[in-house]
From TrEMBL:
Main localization (coarse): membrane
Gene Ontology CC entries for this record: plasma membrane
Keywords: Cell membrane, Membrane, Transmembrane, Transmembrane helix
Protein name: Polysaccharide biosynthesis protein C-terminal domain-containing protein
Amino acid sequence: MKSKLLNLTKNTFIQGGFFLTASSFIAGFLNYLFNIFAGRALGPEGYGEIAALFSYMVVLSIPMGSIVSLLIQKIGSSENPTEYAVAVHEWILQKTKKWWFVFVGYLIITPFVPQLTNLSPMSGYLLPLFILLSFAGSYYVGALQGLHIFFWFAIISIGTVLLKLLGAVLALNGLGGLPIVLIFLLISSALGLVINYVLYKKHVQKKAKHIIIKDHRIKDVLMDKQLWLTTGVTGALALINNVDIMFVKKVFDAEQAGIYSSWSLFAKIIFYVLGPILTMAFIFFSSKKHEIKHQIVFIGSFIFLAAIGVIANLGYGAFGREIVDNLFGPQFRSVIPYLEWAAYFGTGYTMMTFMTFYYLAKKSKLSLLPVVLFPVYLIVLVMYSKIIPDVMYISTIYTYAVIIIFLLVFFKDRFLFLIR
């Protein structure tokens, strides 16, 4: 028994799960503090600005998210993961040098961003720079996870969030307001990129022995079906997670945008805390070695997520006023009547993401279900969102519609398998 436990602790997924889960709770807590301090320091209007900026960053970084997910899959399934990772890195550098003028053209649109997004000038001007940093760092994020270098990935995640938090702390103490928060966000992104590059050089590039760089054209890469499947799935999830905040920022006034952003934070705190577990689940479901356990883990994880949702709903319902007053302050009390819906949406979004990752890891077209239903969600959101609660209800109903379809297909396939 003791030897079995020792073997378990040496397992890559067990170790990685520990590091990612531990760092998740720490980084999630720090992110939570950042949002609280930013909300208290900037009020509903300023907090709505920060939340909208993050949403635009996430949505415009969808291609980078696809790169991360695809790298995790490709590196994990490669016979020589380290050599493969280095070859991909060199290929990216070659293509970046060749197509450098595209990035210059991208920066030309910067002056028009504030008008297009309804962001403040400073936030709008920094947005393209944040996207470029995200593009540059996406490879390293995917490579570190794909090569199971979870410890350093966890350390970097925590460190960058600490820097971001420092900006909110300074603003809370009256030093700089919104500009200081944005400056530290920029420092956090840039420093994270530098550290990731140093780790790549030390832990990946130096260990690679025989590297063959295939001269794939960008057109050839774009023909990869798995790339489009991954892009569609991660893109839909990112849009669902952020398009509501972008919509509210564009359509409603600044104070209402801030109130809705606080509701969104309370909803998605479940997703943020459990995020690394979802990533580990994706890696687990992508591994053929553990395929026999996939369905059992799927069912067990779904039950676990449902239990977390029930606890969150009861907590928000019983202590809503105390939670809002102690965290954001009296300025945000308008969100209290809708906190139980926040638990519904947060749980639903986390479940939907988990199920989507399951089918994406299986390379199933069913993972595109959120993509297929997203246009319907967007149309309903635009046409029927007359007040802020409408946005809350529509977003929640959409996530559970997707979950129900996923479950029906899963249990149908399970039933057909058992009767064979």
